[in-house]
Amino acid sequence: MKRNTFCGENVSRLGMGNMRLPTLADGSIDYISAEAIIDKLYSAGVNYFDTAYVYHHGESEAFLGKALKKYPRDSFYVATKYNCCANPDYKAVFEEQLSRLDMDRIDFYLLHAVSDGTIDTYLTNGCVEYFLEQKSLGRIRHLGFSFHGSIDTLHKVLAAHTWDFAQIQFNYLDYLEFDARAQYEIITSKNIPIVVMEPVRGGRLASLTPETNMELKSVHRCRSIASWAFRFVMGFDNAKVVLSGMSTIEQAEDNIITFRYDDALSAEERDLLFSVCEMFKKEISAPCTACKYCVDGCPMGINIPEMMTVYNKYKLNGKGALRAFENCEHSAVDCVGCGACSVQCPQNIDIPALMSDMSAAYETLKK
Q: Where are the extended beta strands (E) located within 219-297?
């Protein structure tokens, strides 16, 4: 298992994320299956386990503490997080987390999901000063933050304190399309080590489309599509720990192989991956130009170009993008499938089919 020196610790480059653990029919964690994943990873040399106060409705921390109890405490590292939106009482949260984990210290502690909307709370409510005090007492070993905000907010949080580490969403799609590259470079310029979350974008990059998967398989037939995403991240020296939210033993086994035997992408492989990413985006995106020819004939008064924008975000980012429907007077769920829009579309988009796809996904999201 590949390892790195991270905050002075000898840490496995692959870390186990405990946000997507296997569950039972009632939604609770399947302790037997989840513990088998932990045991498989630990035996392979993984020693970094990440959780949070809110994961699995608060059950993840207790599960992780129980699953790791059989192992010597100094043989692994635990990371967890304080979320100001879940419970503003940071003192109570911290004590509860120690109790849930059944541990006397937390190795890597983070402010959870620092964003444009939460930054001011985190920097003014006294939590950072309290956590620094806990660090001086040995109850926290390293203090950092996980980030989901704008570049301006990143500069703001970096300027506020001296951080031991930072956690960012980093993968080849976010590198090419969004702010991941800039975030990585800004944090690295401050000599702050990075933990990577969402290296396969919540599983979206674990399988692309049949055509783009075939392009990658033609080069490395036996390697998984997910391994390409992990190997992309391996090419960045300051990505010290790469988290994977494994929910099956098969995912764990595949990741163990990747982080035991594989190296970062070669220059040729990286060029191919970027080319495949462009193909992937075109294949999953609706080529809407917002000409609005479709709008006037819609009997339900749906702003169809707006729905096509939501569709493209949904295909890239997952069902959460469909929350945009909640702010629309009329959305894809109101579509009656009459086809009047498709007749008018110069891009020949099968609009009713995309509306139906979004509507069905939104119903599952609401559940």
A: 239-244
